[in-house]
Structure formats: structure tokens, C-alpha cells
Amino acid sequence: SIGMVWSAAALIFLFVTKAGMQKRLPKENAKANRGSRIQNTWKQLTSMSRGSILQILGLLWSHSVIGFGYFVLLSWVPTFLSSQVGMSSPRMLGLLSAVPFLTTAVLACFVGNIADYLIVKRKWAVSATRRLMMVFSTLGPALGLAMLAMTPTQATFAPLYALIALTVSMGFQAFNYPGFHAYVQDVAGPSGNAGLLLSVTNTGGVIFGAVGNLLMGVMVEKTGTFASVFWSSSALYVLSFFVWCTIMTGEELK
User: Fold this and answer.
1) What angle do CA 180, 195, 126 make, to 5 degrees?
2) Which class for 242: exposed (0-12), middle (13-18), buried (19 or more C-beta within 10 A)?
């Protein structure tokens, strides 16, 4: 029910915004602009430089890792807590599973302001700011997932330890918003293709996350523990860090 209310509010806002934009544009130019934008989009995609193509592939990989990590934690955290950590109370299980995701939502409000402060007040380069945000959003989850892989399941403090590790893993995901998502808009430039670019990378993230989720299930079934799942996820985030620092130059896609 909450999702339906949220979707309805988003649709209302979308139509109001669209109506306001149409009023400011001459009607005779609307169709022409729509057709020319489609042609220009495909022309740009087929004539991009090697550096731009590498950046798109880097964005696709980074978003895939984000989706993979999110899907794994969202799907397997309750099972991990109940089967490995010994959480049997449904109420506590729900609370411990929700806290890490709530942490992400809260931190996202602050890290976005930090990024803006670095750019506006401290005069940092935009690309340097995005890279710093991505350092946190890749190595932070990698650390949290490595901690989860080493969870002392037999210890009395295992639930608290798992909660801290999960919070680290998900909390640092908040840096994706002023990092990855803002970077997409930065490199898309005035072409207006940021939405298209993000939709392409998001599709890759969903597919990789869904397929990876199935593979993780097979790993858990064969090994009987979640250690291999968390170690593999951590390694993917570390690789994403190196890909970002190597390929993502911050230059506008051309």
C-alpha cells in the first residue's frame, strides 16, 4: 500500500512537471525536438570515442556490482541471521534486517551535502569529488562484507557483530548517490542523455544482481555457509574500485 501511494505521488509530480515544461516550449517545436533528440542520441552512441565507450562499460560494471551487492544482502540477510547467527525471534530478525537499509537512507542525506560542500565551498574538482565518494562506496561495502565472512557464528556477540558488519556494508552504499549517480549526470553533459545512460546501466545492474543471486544460492547450498558468498561479493567491490580509478576520467561522453 505504501508503494502504491508513493507511485501515485510520483506520477502526479511527473505530470505536473511535464505540463509546466510544455507550457514553456512552443508546441510546433515539441515534435521536432523529440524527433531530433532521438536521432542525435543514436548518432552519438554510434560515433563515441574509445574513451567514452570505456567509461560507459565502467559505469555498467559499477552499477552491476552495486545491484549485485544490494540483491545479495536484501535476499540473504534474513536467512544468514537465522541459520548462521542463531536469530530465532521474527521481531528481532526483522529489526536487524531493516537497520542497515535504514542507515543507508539516513546517511544519503548527509553525504550528498558533503559532496556539494567539497565542490562549492572547498573548490574541489567535480571528478575528484566523485572519485572520493566512489572510494567510500566501493571499499566500504567490501570491508563490511569481509567482516560478514568472518562472523564468529558461535560467539554470544555474533548478532551484534553481524549487525555492525551489515550496517557498514549498507551504510557506505549511500555514497553511491553523490558518487555514481551524480557522475552519470556529469559525464552525460548537456546532451540530455543522462536518463538513457542510467537506464542502461541500471538494466545491467538488475540482470547481474538477479543472476548473481541465483549463483550465490548455489554456493550456499554446496558449502553450507555464507562465507564464500560474502568473500566473493567483497572481491567484486574491490575490483569495482580499481575499475573506477582506472577508467572513469570524468570527461564528458563524446
Assistant:
1) 35
2) exposed
Return the residue matching grid coordinates 532521438.
38
Half-sphere exposure of 183 (CA within 13 A, CB side): 28
Q: What is the pLDDT of residues 14-59, one digit of tens each?
A: 665 555 545 544 554 444 455 455 556 556 666 678 888 899 999 9
| Maximum alpha-carbon separation in the chain | 71
Q: Grid coordinates representing 115?
A: 559532496
> Whole-number mean pLDDT of the chain?
84
Query: For residues 115 and 121, what is the distance between their CA atoms, to the nearest angstrom?
Result: 10
Q: Match 573506477 to its residue by C-alpha cell.
A: 244
pLDDT in tens, 206-220: 999 889 888 888 998
CA 70, 74, 76, 81 dihedral sign is: positive
Q: Are 115 and 178 in contact (CB under 8 A)?
A: yes
Spatial contact of 172 and 136, defined as CB atoms under 8 Å apart: yes
Q: What is the DSSP letter of 225?
A: S
Give residue-wise pLDDT tens across range 84-103.
Answer: 888 777 877 887 788 888 99
Burial degree of 55 (CB within 10 A; 0-12, 13-18, 19+): buried
Distance CA 119, CA 172 (A): 20
Residue where the block lists cell 537512507: 105
